[in-house]
Structure formats: structure tokens, C-alpha cells
## 1
Amino acid sequence: MNIGLFGYGKMGKMIEQIAQKRGHSIVAKIDDASQPIDYKSMDVAIDFSTPESAFGNITNCFKNGVPVICGTTGWLERYAEAVEICNDNKGGFIYASNFSLGVNIFFELNAQLAKMMANLEEYKVSMEEIHHTQKLDAPSGTAITLAEGIIENTPYEKWKLEESGDKTIPIKSIREGMVPGTHSIAYESAVDKIEIKHEAHNREGFALGAVIASEWIAGKSGIFSMKDVLNLS
Ligand SMILES: NC(=O)C1=CN([C@@H]2O[C@H](COP(=O)(O)OP(=O)(O)OC[C@H]3O[C@@H](n4cnc5c(N)ncnc54)[C@H](OP(=O)(O)O)[C@@H]3O)[C@@H](O)[C@H]2O)C=CC1
Ligand SMILES: O=C(O)C1=N[C@H](C(=O)O)C[C@H](O)C1
């Protein structure tokens, strides 16, 4: 498959290595808005760029008939608009805040645990995410997906950075060193604490998931998720 990479930073470079090992070719490495782009050479585009550039990159791909796998976080206020442009162009699109198999299993575990805790008022939920100091957005996209999983299954109504409240999930974002991504969720009562945690050891799991998603979307049109790709629940 011929892959165009939008964003050739930490993730773009890791995806290049994994894609080549799986027999794919990287036909474009786009790292800034002024680069000329040959969309015709691409079977699929993989975007791991920046919160500011992702929407433009993705929607230009749809307009040029290229399906998109997007892992960039921090731009989701325009997700619905991107979906509309994708559908108008009969394109293919997968966005995931986290492409790793482990985190997608963790998303399912989080939803199951939230269902079990939904009526136990003595337990208060809180979340923490830790990432490297170069990360531009907070909270992480993964933390937002986890919070949404709790909101869907409990009386909690919203999340907020640091701030707790009756129906508000507090999320603590820590930026330190080179941490690839650690997420934990705790339910705490006066007598005990239940905690689940996912810790990425490196970026390989994210990159492999994105390449598997790009193989999966070949020949399909529509809006999909990693649940479809991984056949989860
Ligand atoms: N969904 C998932 O599984 C994961 C998601 N992510 C997300 O992916 C994104 C990228 O992460 P990461 O690789 O660590 O970040 P990096 O900062 O290492 O890479 C981003 C790259 O995008 C480039 N860029 C800037 N402007 C544009 C543009 N207009 N078009 C294309 N590329 C551009 C940057 O170039 P320059 O430095 O010159 O500005 C940089 O090389 C983040 O949003 C992060 O949260 C990360 C890991 C996993
Ligand atoms: O910026 C990162 O590095 C990561 N970003 C994603 C997020 O915001 O959740 C996924 C992963 O945690 C690494």
C-alpha cells in the first residue's frame, strides 16, 4: 500500500518503520502546510500532526479521494465538520485518540468498571494522565475518551482539568520527561480505592495500530472506529 504521512515527527517516524516492515511504501512525508502534495500517489493518509493542522490535512485528503487514519489529538471540536466533509466526498475515515490494542482493551475495561460503579455513591471517580513534556494538548485525547466512557455509563455529566464536583470527573494532567503515555482511573471511598491503569512502554503500539487501521480501511468508505478494526464488543 502507498501511504502518505501527514506529520513526520515522533509518531510519523515510528509509523514509517512499522509500515515498511509490513511491506508498505511511504510516498509522502508532509511536515508543513506549504509542501506540495501529490494525493494521487496515496492509497491512504495517516495523520499524526498538530492540533492546528490536522483538520486541514484531513479534509484536503477527503476532497482528493484519499481515506484517512487520524491519531492527532486536540482538534476534536471540528470532528463533526470533518465527518460531514468525509461523507460529502464518500470518503473513508478513522479517528482514534489511541490506536494501541492495549488502550482499546482498556477503553472496554473502563466502560465495564463504570457500569459496575454507577450506583455506588460512596465512591468518587478521578483520572490521571502522564505524558512527555513536548505534548501540546491537555488533557490527552485518550483521557477524554476514557472520561466519555465513564459519562456514558454513570451519573457523571462532564470532565474538567483538576476540578472536581458532584457530577464532574476531575482529570489531572502531568507532563514529565519522555513518558509515552500513562492513564489511570480511580474510584475512591472512605475505606478503599479501586484503580485501573494503562502504561505505554514506547510508541510502537500506537504506530502498529495506525498501520493496521490503514490496511483495514483500504477499499471501504464511511466513518469507522478502532472498535470496528479490532472487532471489539
Ligand atoms: N492516537 C494515538 O494513538 C496517538 C496520538 N498521538 C498524537 O499525535 C500527534 C503527533 O504526535 P507526535 O508525533 O508525538 O508529535 P510531534 O511533535 O513529534 O510531531 C508532529 C509533527 O507534525 C508536524 N507538522 C506541523 N505542521 C504540520 C502540517 N501543517 N502538516 C503536517 N505536519 C505538520 C510537526 O512539524 P514541526 O515540528 O516542524 O512543527 C511535527 O514534525 C499529537 O496530537 C499526539 O497527541 C500521539 C501518539 C499516539
Ligand atoms: O501526545 C502523545 O504522545 C500521545 N497522545 C495521545 C493522546 O493524547 O491520548 C495518545 C498517547 O497517549 C500518546
## 2
Amino acid sequence: MKAVQLYYPPEWAHCYGCGYLNAQGLRIETHWHPERGESETRFTPKPYHTAIPGFVYGGLLASLVDCHSTATAAAAKAQAEGLSLEAHPLRFVTASLKVDYLKPTPLGPELLLVGRAREVKGKKVVVETELFAEGVLTVRGEAVLVQIGEGFGRSGSAPGGG
Ligand SMILES: CCCCCCCC(=O)SCCNC(=O)CCNC(=O)[C@H](O)C(C)(C)COP(=O)(O)OP(=O)(O)OC[C@H]1O[C@@H](n2cnc3c(N)ncnc32)[C@H](O)[C@@H]1OP(=O)(O)O
């Protein structure tokens, strides 16, 4: 199964968290499971992603939730509209991100993020994400993602589109 991020067009593939063209980035890969309506991302933090010894830095966890959410939004929107990402490479940016750190996240094990779209409406998708370390839920996230169109971020252009 091809990761959602690999459908992003090159001009939108430089993101630090999820861009396949960012050699220094995290380059997370999110897989969509249409039958469950859920997304999954697996990521193993490096030893230098430390908060206090033995535990993962919260900013990294927020980045994982952030970029996992944008991919979940693209996949959920495509499914809701009956579109293929191959033909319609949807791209979302984060309008709002809330992260609840429920427990310290141990540094070492692979982390699993599971996402679901709670709302798909117009160009907006609301995504809930749970992050697990060795089966234990340690982080919960909620993000509002907005679909962007051609010209996003260019000087003088309005945001949005899609
Ligand atoms: C190029 C690819 C990069 C991918 C990076 C992946 C993750 C990231 O780190 S993104 C970087 C950080 N994010 C940004 O820089 C985005 C900056 N913000 C913007 O450009 C704009 O505010 C943008 C595009 C999010 C929304 O603008 P606009 O298109 O005018 O949205 P707008 O029409 O006002 O709102 C659309 C919907 O989103 C909702 N919304 C917008 N902002 C928010 C917010 N902060 N909180 C909650 N809801 C919001 C609106 O209420 C509206 O909902 P509804 O349809 O129910 O009324």
C-alpha cells in the first residue's frame, strides 16, 4: 500500500515532518485503511529526540500528530468524495492543532499513530489521532486541517482553494 505522502506533488513535498523531498526531515509515511476508516503511521524516534532521559520530546510528538493528521485528512476526504489520490493529490495544511500528553512516551520503541476523521465538510477536515507506545496510549491529538489549492503560500495569493 502506497503511503499518502507519496501522492503529494513535488511542490508540496518539502515539509519537515512529511515531505519526501526533505532529506533532513522526519519523512513520516501514513497508510490509509479504507475498510476501517483509519490511518496509521509508525515512527521510531532517534536517541536525540529526548525530553528527559528515556522519554520522547513533546515537540516531536506534536510534529508526528500534525503531519499524520494532514495525511489522514487527504485520505479521508478522498474516500468521502470517491476520489483516488493518484488522480487527485489532495493536500491539507494545519489550521489548528491540540495535543494532550496523557503519559510520558518512552524513548526507544516504535510509536504507532492511529487517526480518524471526525468531520469532513467542504475544504475542512477534523482529525483525531491516538499515539501508542508498546500498546499504551500516551498522546491524543485533535487537528483542524484545511485543503489548499494551487498557489498556496505564494505572495499575494489567498489561502485555500481545492
Ligand atoms: C504546502 C504543504 C505543507 C504541509 C504541511 C503540513 C503540516 C503543517 O505544518 S502546515 C503549516 C502550519 N499551517 C499553516 O501555515 C497554515 C496557515 N494558515 C492558513 O494559511 C489559513 O489560515 C488556512 C489555509 C489554514 C485557512 O484559511 P482559509 O482557507 O481562509 O480558511 P477559512 O475559509 O477561513 O476556514 C475554513 C474552515 O476551517 C476552519 N478554521 C480555519 N482556521 C481555523 C482554526 N485556527 N481553528 C479552527 N478552525 C479553523 C474555519 O472555521 C472553516 O470551517 P467551516 O467551513 O466549518 O466554517
